[in-house]
Amino acid sequence: MANLDPCPYCLTDVRISTWDTLVGLPVECPSCGMTSGPPWSANRLIAVLALSVVLNALVLFLVTRPLRAMVLIATYSAAVFAALTLFSDTRNSSPVRPSS
Question: What letter would DSSP give residue 62?
């Protein structure tokens, strides 16, 4: 089932499938060629990233033996945690007070 929504650029009706609406994929307008889609919030982005990390970890059980999979998942989780802490936003942290 597909919906017809107007293109925000040329106002031509664009056919948007249910899957595109559910996932939030951008759709290309056939007349003007511009792409448009729903805006992604920070919460939605974090949820998609967390789900991808979980799914990537679970795939390891399909391609390796269980003991090796657990070791790889632990390594993968540590790498993801290290990347998140390394690239986290530090502007909101409290400043260091000079000693008096």
Answer: H
19-73 confidence digits (pLDDT tens): 888 878 889 999 999 988 888 788 888 888 888 888 888 888 889 898 998 898 8
Dihedral pair phi/psi, residue 96, rounded to 5°: -80, 130
Q: Tokens representing 53? A: 């990390």
Identify which of 46, 45, 70 has the alpha carbon closest to the alpha carbon of residue 58: 70
Cβ neighbours for 29, distance < 8 A, ≥ 6 positions apart: 7, 9, 10, 12, 14, 35, 36
Residue 2, beta-bridge partner list: 17
Mapping DSSP onto H, E and C, the string for 1-40 reads CEEEEECCCCCCEEEEEHHHHHHCCCEECCCCCCEECCCC
